[in-house]
Amino acid sequence: xxxxxxxxxxxxxxxxxxxxxxxPLAVMAAMxxxxxxxxxFPIQSWTTDWYRSVLxxxxxxxxxxxSLQVALISTxxxxxxxxxxxxxxxxxxxxxxxxxxxxxxxxxFIPIVVASISLRMFIGNFGFSTGIMAVAFxxxxxxVPFVVVMLLTRLNSMSTNLTDAARDLGADDFIVxxxxxxxxxxxxxxxxxxxxxxxxxxxxxxxxxLGSFDPTFPVLLFAKLRFGFDPGLAAISTLVLIVTIALxxxxxxxxxxxxxxNQGQVTAIGDNGNG
Length: 275
Fold this sequence. Notes:
The structure is a single chain. The chain is mainly alpha-helical. The chain has helices at about 1-30, 50-55, 60-90, 95-110, 110-125, 130-155, 160-170, 175-200, 205-210, 215-225, 230-275. The chain has one domain (about 60-275): MetI-like fold. The model has no long low-confidence stretch (mean pLDDT about 80). InterPro entries: Bact_Polyamine_Transport, MetI-like, MetI-like_sf, NRAMP_fam.
């Protein structure tokens, strides 16, 4: 009886969760095709005019460009800061390592509103102006913990046979890093890059507090929502969702292929060592 309930209840629970997760997205995508200025069901007539209009909307395009600039700058800052920190943490063990990780990931647990206000006060007191660089700095602060965790996880899975074999063949530390360690970290670096890009792109709170007259995409959507929700907002949100899903699938496929290649490399070195 319990097994029968499990066979019925668990799949039912799963599909209810799937519906709860994806049904709002499906409704949003459908509303972008509504031939009306209002968002409501039923949809009596369909049109693609909203999708065409948002693609030619200069204000939307400008905000997307600002968000892209912020995401690229903040991601670069996060990788530049987070990568050396991951190598530093990897050198320690025990309580010291746990303490370092706790300090590094602390920004991820601070309430985002509190973090945004503190960053705004910090920037104002030191004479920095709000704008793209200020927003990128705020986003980078939240990105570093994820970069460190992802790279540290990859470093922990790295076999010492790779570096030992390279040194046995005469490679110095410079060659070992750029020819062995860095390629091995490529999946984690790419994953961190994509995650930080998406994290920055959807960050509304920090963008709102640290931005200026050039709004990011989430801030512009919020400003437009104050005047009502129309199918145009649903259309642009759907397009951004499609691009995000495509980038996520590509990142997952890239990381999987690189991991499989690195695993084959480790196996070959182990076989040669045993031989």
